[in-house]
Write a structure and sequence with these properties.
Helices cover 12% and strands 52% of the residues. It has 174 residues and is mainly β. 6% of the residues are buried.
């Protein structure tokens, strides 16, 4: 017989800040600086157009006008800040004989989060960020048993309550 107990503290602090530049369409020709490679891209049935990046950035890009509205929208819409703190305490016990092993335990998980993200209304990004926050308290029990019926045969059973958390990008998004 034996037991363990413990505490787990975790903090996740993430942020994303993207700057995007979108150019107005149909301003330049790509003749002379683009080519179609002589191979197929796996999983893509259409030919891909490749650019000579040095020529594009030195001769074409400086003359292009920027779509300010689309650039602002895409620069802000995927920006976020996410902070999550979890505190958990657990207790595990085990009992074992030559043919039987039983273990069980209980974990209490307390999580709080705050997410800041862009605000959009009717396709327009608004000034400032909105805040989403929440918390969860979960009791997570488990029980495992293993019985050696013979040296060749073993019977096992398990039951538990588990949880999964969403990726921060799915919480902090417009």
């Amino acid at each position: 017989f034996g037991f363990t107990a413990g505490v787990d503290l975790r903090q996740m602090d993430m942020q994303r800040d993207i700057n995007a530049t979108y150019y107005n369409q149909r301003q330049a020709s790509l003749d002379g600086m683009s080519f179609i490679p002589d191979f197929a891209i796996p999983g893509y049935s259409q030919p891909a157009l490749w650019l000579d990046a040095d020529v594009f950035w030195s001769t074409i890009a400086p003359s292009l006008t920027v779509d300010q509205k689309l650039s602002r929208y895409n620069s802000l819409v995927n920006d976020y800040q996410y902070d999550e703190r979890s505190l958990a305490g657990y207790l595990n016990g085990i009992y074992a004989t030559d043919t039987l092993r039983v273990s069980g335990g209980l974990r209490h998980d307390r999580t709080r989060f705050e997410a800041r993200m862009a605000q959009a209304l009717a396709g327009e990004v608004l000034d400032g960020q909105k805040l989403a926050s929440g918390q969860a308290n979960e009791w997570l029990p488990y029980l495992n048993a293993s019985w050696s019926i013979t040296p060749q045969w073993k019977l096992k059973a398990s039951a538990s309550k588990t949880l999964g958390r969403p990726n921060p990008e799915t919480i902090a998004t417009v």
